[in-house]
Amino acid sequence: xxxxxxxxxxxxxxxxxxxxxxxGIVVRLIMECVEELGYNDNVIFGKPVGxxxxxxxxxxxxxxxxAHGRNGASxxxxxxxxxxxxxxxYQGDGDAxxxxxxxxxxAAYRNEKFTVxxxxxxxxxxxxxxxxxxxxxxxxTTTSVNGRDVELSGLPIKMPEMIATSFDTAYVARGALxxxxxxxxxxxYIKKALQAQSDGIGHSMVEVLSPCxxxxxxxxxxxxxxxIKELVPYYPLGELKNKGGK
Amino acid sequence: MLKEVVFxxxxxxxxxxxxxxxxxVALFSGKKATWMPEYGAAMRGxxxxxxxxxxxxxIFSPGQEAPDAIMALNIPSFNRFIKILKPGGIMLIDSDxxxxxxxxRDDVKVVGVPATTIVxxxxxxxxxxxxxxGALVKLMGDYSEQEAIDGMNDMFSKKGKNAFExxxxxxxxRGYASV
Amino acid sequence: xxxxxxxxxxxxxxAIRAGMHMYAGYPITPSSEIMEYMSWRxxxxxxQYIQAESELGAMYMVYGAASVxxxxxxxxxxxxxxxxxxxxxxxxxxxxxxxxISVCRYGxxxxxxxxxxxxxxxxxxxxxxxxxxxxxxxxxxxxxxxxLVYLAFDLSEKYRNIVVILTEGALGQMMEDCEYPDYKEVxxxxxxxxxxxxxxxxxxxxxxxxxxxxxxxxxxxxxxxxEQRWEAVGVEDxxxxxxxxxxPGRIALGIVDDARKRGEKxxxxxxxxxxxxxxxxxxxxxxDVKGFVTIETADDGQMVEDVxxxxxxxxxxxxxxxxxxxxxxxxxxxxxxKKFEAIKAGxxxxxx
Lengths: 246, 179, 352
Prior knowledge:
heterotrimer; C: alpha/beta; five-stranded mixed β-sheet; globular
C-alpha cells in the first residue's frame, strides 16, 4: 500500500526560497513535527532577519518578527509568558551566530525552555553571500574574495558544540539534508528538540547543514556534494547532547 | 516656613538615615518633606551626605541651596559644608570626632555634642546618628521631643524594625537633653 | 499621609499597581533601584522579571513579551537607553505598547553618574531609525512619577505607542512622600499572538509602509491634540516666561513664586508631556512677553529648540529664546537667578 505524505496543514502556501535551498525542507520538517506533537494551534514561531524572513506568507501560524540576531532574547520572554506554547526560533547562522551571538548564547546559558533551529549554509545568504563565522577556510565569498583567511578571521564557529559542552541545556544536535536518510534523521533531531521543550526539560537546539546553491555558485547536486565532502568532516553530524525525558 | 538641613559624615555613620528620620518626622507632623542624597560620588566607607527640606507648603527645589542647619559627623564634612551654611545657621558636630578648629565663621552657631561618648555610655554605638538627631531637633525647634520620637518610631515600625524602639528612644532623648 | 519613598522605587511599585506583566532590564546608575526592587517584588506579585544580558537583550525581551499582549516595562539610563534604541524602533514598527523609564544621567558616552537632562532630544525625537515619536512624560515629584507611570501603561495601550518616562537621576534617587494608586488587574491584550493564529500580524516585508505611515500620522495628530500636559503659573502678565521640566521645573516654579510675591512679573510653563510638547500653553501667555527662558541641566540646552519652534508657530516668532544651563546635579536657585539677571541685563545672547 502506498504511503501518502500530506503537507502539514499549517504550511498554507509555497515557501519562497531559491531552487536547491535547504530552508524549504527544514521548514517542512519543523511543521511536520509541530503537527505530530499536537501543537498546530499552540505554537509561536520566531523568524529572523535573513532569507528566512521571507517565510511570512507561507505558514498559517503566529510568526514573530525577530530583529537581526535578537530572537534569543525575545523568545525568552515569549516562552516565559506563554510556558505552555511551543516556541521555536528559526534562524540563519549569520543571525544566530554572528550578530546574535550574545542573545543566542545567553538564552542557552539561562537554559530558556524554547527550541532553536539554525540553518548553517556557511554564508550570509540574503545579503548576497558574504562571509559568515561559519564560512569554511579558503571559501570565497563577497567579503573574502581570495578565500577565507583564518589567520585574520578565525576558524569556522561551532556554536552547537559550545552550547552542548558549556551550558546545562536539554538537547543539541546537528543534521544535514543530502539524502532522504539524513533528512529523516534531521527530522528526528528536531522532533526530540521540540519534545524536550514540550516536556519542560530545557533549552534545545538543532543546527542543519544546508545548501545554498545560489551563493555557492553551484548546482543543487554540487552543493550537496560540497556538504558531504567539505562540511561534514568539520561539522560532525549527530546528537551532541541529550539529557533525556523526565 | 521652609527649612533645609544637610546631614554629612562617613558612609556607615547613619547620616542618610538621620536625614530620612527627620523627613519622616516632618510628614508625621503634617508637613511636606524632601530627601535628596548626593549619590554620585558617595561610596561605602567614603563621605555621604543628604539634604532634607521640610515645609508647611509646596517644596520647590529639593536640592542643596543654603542650609539652615548642618549635622557634620566628620572633619571633611565640617570643612566642606560650613562654607554653605546660611548666616545665622546651626552647625551641629560630634565634638568627639570633629576635633579641628571650628571657629571659622562668626555669623553661624557651632554646637558640639559628645555623641560618641554618649553612645558608648549607652552601649549603643549604632545610635550615634539618633543622639545627634535628638540634639538637632531641639536646636531647630520645629518639633516637640515627643512628636519627633513618635515620628521616628513610626518609621522604624513600618520597616518592621520595632526591636530597636527602646534603644532609639533612649538615644534620641539623650541627644535632645544634651543641648 | 504617605511615606517617604525613593523615586525609582515608587515608579517600580506604580508599574506593579498598573498591572505590568513583565519587567526586563540591566542595572545602571542611577536607575538600578527600579530593577533591584523588581527582582523580588515582581515575583511576589506574580509577575515576570528577567535580568537580561544587556540593555539590548532587555529591550528585545520586552519586544517579545509585548507580542503576546502583555504589559511590559524596561528602565535604564543614559547610554543604556541608547543601547535599547534599535529595539524601540522595532517596537514602534510593530505598534507594540511598552513603557520605558529613562532616568537621565548627565553627558555623552559614559557620562556622569550625576543627574542631568541631556537626553531630551533623543527621547522626544525617537532615538532609533525611522519616523516615529515616543510619548514622553516627565515628572517633577515622586508623586507625579507614580501617577505618570500608572497613566503611561494606559496611554501606551490606547495609542499602541511607546511611552517614555523621562526623569533625572536626582528624582530617581530622592525621597518624597507619595501615595500609591490601587492595583489594576489587566489581562493580556486580545490583539496579540496567542499561538492559535487568531491575530495574524502583518510583516514589514509585505505591508504597505506608506499606508501605515498615513495611519500613524493621523494617530500622531490625535496624540498631539489629546495628550499635552503642563503646569503654568503667572504667564498671563509675565515679562519673561520660564520653560522647564523635571527638577528644574520645580526650581522655576519656586523662582516665579518668590518673584511674584515681590511683584516681579515672571511666569513659568512646567512641561509634563515633552512629546507632545505642550504648545497649547502658549495660548495663555502675555502677548507682550519679552523673552522665553529654558532652565536645563545640560551642556547646551535642548528643550530650547522646541520652545523656539512652538513660539514661532504660536505667533511669538520675534520673542527671543534663551537658555540657562547647569552642570551635573540639581541646579542651585541662586545660580539660575544670577544667569537670569544677566539675560535681563542684555548680557546674554539669545539661542533663537
